[in-house]
Amino acid sequence: MDMARFIALAMASLTLGLSGQASDIDRIRMEGLRQPHAQSLLRELTKGVGPRLSGSPGAAKAVDWGVARMKALGFVNVHLVPCKVPHWVRGKAESVSMSIGDRKVPLSACALGGSVATPRRGITSEVVEVQSLEEAAALGSRAKGKIIFYNRPFDPTLVNTFSAYGGAVDQRSQGAVAAAKVGAVAVLVRSMTLSQDDAPHTGAMNYQDGVKKIPAAALSAKAANMLSASLKSRPVVVQMKLNCQTLPDADSASVAGEIRGTTFPDEIIVMGGHLDSWDLGEGAHDDGAGIVQSMEALSILKRLNMAPKRTIRVVLFMNEENGLRGGRSYADLKKAEKHIAAIESDAGGFAPRSFGVTGSESQLAKVQSWLPDLKTVGIERVDKGGGGADIGPLGARGTVLIGLVPEGQRYFDVHHSRNDVFEAVHPRELQLGAIAMAMLAWRLSEEGI
Amino acid sequence: MDMARFIALAMASLTLGLSGQASDIDRIRMEGLRQPHAQSLLRELTKGVGPRLSGSPGAAKAVDWGVARMKALGFVNVHLVPCKVPHWVRGKAESVSMSIGDRKVPLSACALGGSVATPRRGITSEVVEVQSLEEAAALGSRAKGKIIFYNRPFDPTLVNTFSAYGGAVDQRSQGAVAAAKVGAVAVLVRSMTLSQDDAPHTGAMNYQDGVKKIPAAALSAKAANMLSASLKSRPVVVQMKLNCQTLPDADSASVAGEIRGTTFPDEIIVMGGHLDSWDLGEGAHDDGAGIVQSMEALSILKRLNMAPKRTIRVVLFMNEENGLRGGRSYADLKKAEKHIAAIESDAGGFAPRSFGVTGSESQLAKVQSWLPDLKTVGIERVDKGGGGADIGPLGARGTVLIGLVPEGQRYFDVHHSRNDVFEAVHPRELQLGAIAMAMLAWRLSEEGI
After folding, report:
1. What is the per-residue pLDDT across B20-60, written as a single tens digit (0 to 9) for each?
2. Which of A19, A153, A294, B163 has the most C-beta neighbours closer than 10 Å?
3. How remote is the C-alpha of A251 from its chain's centroid?
4. Average pLDDT, stretch A122-147?
5. A14 pLDDT tier (thresholds 50, 70, 90)
6. What is the CATH number of domain A91-243?
7. pLDDT classification of A397: cutoffs 50, 70, 90
């Protein structure tokens, strides 16, 4: 597409709503677009701090960064909200390979978060491929001593990638338990992605009391395809060695900072994401994006010297990925405070498309009444239902929960993998989400909910 | 974001509309999602054919590819629609550098499409920076013998990137004429992008009868920033050498193929994009995406053995970028045929967000009534106004014009530059656009407009 032919078209779809004096909402948008800082914050968090799995030195560094950065941005009441977190470490890089005749073919793999290690010499066993937990259970004694390979891919007919994820992730989260129950010695799980590259995607897995803990690793989509193709013609033996372990719970914390409300300081609006990330990649989309959008949203108001009626607080939650301890401890330790609403961004730093609201019908309607503001930065809808994992525990006490929903087609290409790096985040898409959050927080602070 | 916590959220925002027997629209979506072919078509066009500027061997190869591919897909009445096209060639790579004292600093640059060459020895002259055509005109005699450097960036406060483009592109299209009128010897133009990398973006520029033709090149955003910073402290001399030339108009053609209508075969619905591209990059988003989406959309119907009531025709238009000769010749040579509607995709292969419709209010309302179908693949709105450059000439005869509008934040990062390659196109985002077009063409064929 070229030339001025499209000016008319473009202008027609532009809604500025400027008329004489700039409204508060216009000022927020203009500041956010003219002086975008979300990307530079993200660079600090991803390139400066790096990956930050709960309990790791990276996570501790991220906490320090959050405190220092919030103070530098001029937020007040910057403080830690302590929590104990699981402390799982990957150890020396894992190795997985398959033997085809005399040939040994390496398979791109990574231990799942929370997995036990293999014995030091590794596990070498025949592989059985299944498509579901039910199929694994049905193997019965045929699974004994084998490695079970869960290979059900994302359902490609689901346009919503989170639905596709939701429809496949039981293999990762519960596959080891189902396999151990029928006597398998380990599990391999196809990565939770629709993309076809060679990056394995990690993520949390669970054990169950009374069921043997067996090692669990994710295979890249490419490795899963290779293994599956090989299994079609003959039995395949896989060697796998995982060096991970779970250490005692570690001390950690979420980080909070705010602008104090002028009229109703005791009514709090939270904006947040999670500070921890998986150890592969840099946690850029998951959830560096949500962290820096929350900070940038509040910083926009601060830079404009806007004084909200209610307190707007940014919370960088610790340990969403493998425990949710930060979200739980926050709700618990802050239960004396009145949280009227909480906004979370934890679905990637892509172009914002909608907000989802969990609250009463009248609360939903109120947020929907602000849609004309939000449309100016690309929000198309305010839907019923939504929120975020970290703010979830606040919901039990009547806090309205709101989740930012960005364009989702690329999210699971990067999610929990080495692909989740700074460079995969588009600066304008990231910033538009921050501005939308600032607008929403401002409306909540001025009008209540 | 992690785990099954979000299944509920994801399911809530999913609209499948399945109930017993699959509707035509459901079958289109399911086929498109299960057997996506847009990406493999795009690979053929970008990696197999490559760049395809009008008049080039690449463009001729693209025409051959279009014919062969449409036949292989089972389309009928596959034929060429001839046109004469401008034939501009870049020649040996251009070089632009600035002298700061004794130091010569290379500036990443490319000739603008249609530019004349510099003299063989190049042009060496002092640079004057301006922000607009008006500022260039106001230079008067001070511009004599100088190189005028247009450096007005995209307006960052415009969320719609096409609006930002529309607000800056006069520098590229008309800058040389304005500069020549005040005696300048050449122009440099900041690339039409909001990104900050070192890739120069080409694009069409114009001359005017009676005004001297002076050479014109684009600087990358980085080079423009560097040059502008240098100019702040002292005069800067730039050397530039362009080796481009305009050859006599060449014979070329658009390519058409179709599924014939069963009930009203003489009523035609066109789907298309443009087959030509700029010579930098691979023309993947601009407009390989539109080409393969159109072909894939019709191919989905063909694979399902769906027999449309009206004829659905794919047209791969030649020469959108620097002449629009294909769009004009098509409208002219096909004027005896009744075109009831035309759909164009030429805004990048990103996730689809809306359709824009140019037609009567009742025609718009009819397309809007199909929104529930389109929503299932991510189309949020059907707006008034829109279309595409290539189908524009059909509009004069009452054809309803419809443009696919994808998410736009990344488009001008790649547009007309070496960044516009196959790898920058996301396979699912591309495919969703193709499915949306197939649904829309099907509704048009069954219900008319």
Report:
1. 578 999 999 999 999 999 999 999 999 999 999 999 999 99
2. A294
3. 22
4. 98
5. very low
6. 3.50.30.30
7. confident
Give residue B384's pLDDT.
98
Extract the tokens encoding A353.
């498309």
Written as six digits, the tokens of B312 are: 């659905």
Its CATH architecture, for the domain A18-88+248-447, is 3-Layer(aba) Sandwich (3.40)
Shortest CB distance from A4 goes to which of B29, B173, B416? B173
The average pLDDT across A213-231 equals 98
Average pLDDT over residues A243-249: 98
Tell me the whole-structure pTM to 2 decimals.
0.95
Cβ under 8 Å to A: B residues 417-446: 426, 428-429, 432
Question: Which residues have C-beta within 8 Å of that of residue B315, sequence separation ≥ 6?
Answer: B81, B254, B255, B256, B270, B271, B272, B294, B330, B390
Specify the pLDDT at position A9.
47
From-to residues of CATH 3.50.30.30 in chain A:
91-243
Q: How far apart are CA B18 and CA A445, in angstroms?
A: 41
> B110 with B218: CB under 8 angstroms?
yes
pLDDT band at A216 (very low <50, low <70, confident <90, very high): very high
Q: Is B396 within 8 Å of chain A by CB? A: no
Give the tokens for residue A81.
């909200």
pLDDT at A8: 44
Prediction ipTM score: 0.94
Region B133-151 average pLDDT: 98
Query: Would the pLDDT of A222 be above 60?
Result: yes
What is the structure's pLDDT at A293? Answer: 99
The CATH number of B19-88+248-447, from 4.10.91.10, 3.40.630.10, 1.10.1740.10, 3.30.450.20, is 3.40.630.10
State the SS3 of B377-446. CCCCEEEECCCCCCCHHHHCCCCEEEEEEECCCCHHHHCCCCCCCHHHCCHHHHHHHHHHHHHHHHHHHH
Residue B108 distance to chain A (closest CA, Å): 22
Distance to chain B for A338, nearest Cα, Å: 25
CB contact under 8 A, A320 and B10: no
Distance CA(B329)–CA(B343), nearest Å, equals: 17
Q: Which residues of B touch A206 (CB under 8 A)?
A: none
Report the mean per-residue pLDDT for chain A: 95
Shortest Cα distance, chain A CAs vs residue B347, angstroms: 6
Q: From CA B356, how far away is CA A260, in angstroms rounded?
A: 44
Cβ-based contacts of A426 with chain B (< 8 Å): 409-410, 413
Instruction: Compare CB distances from B351 to A30, A162, A409 and report the shortest one's residue.
Output: A409
Where would I find the H helices in A169-249?
Answer: 170-181, 221-233
- Tell me how close the Cα of B103 comes to any Cα of chain A, in angstroms: 32
Beta-carbon separation of B2 and A403 below 8 A: no
Residues of chain B neighbouring A392 (CB-CB closer than 8 A): 5
Tens of pLDDT, residues A141-176: 999 999 999 999 999 999 999 999 999 999 999 999
Inter-chain contacts counted by CB atoms under 8 A, chains A and B: 177
Provide mean pLDDT across the span B229-246.
Answer: 97
Kindly report, as residue ranges, where domains of CATH 3.40.630.10 are found in chain A: 18-88+248-447
What per-residue confidence (pLDDT) applies to B101?
81
* 3.30.499.10, 1.10.3720.10, 3.30.565.10, 3.50.30.30: CATH of B93-243: 3.50.30.30
Per-residue DSSP letter, B35: S
Numbered ranges of CATH 3.40.630.10 in chain B: 19-88+248-447
The pLDDT of residue B1: 60
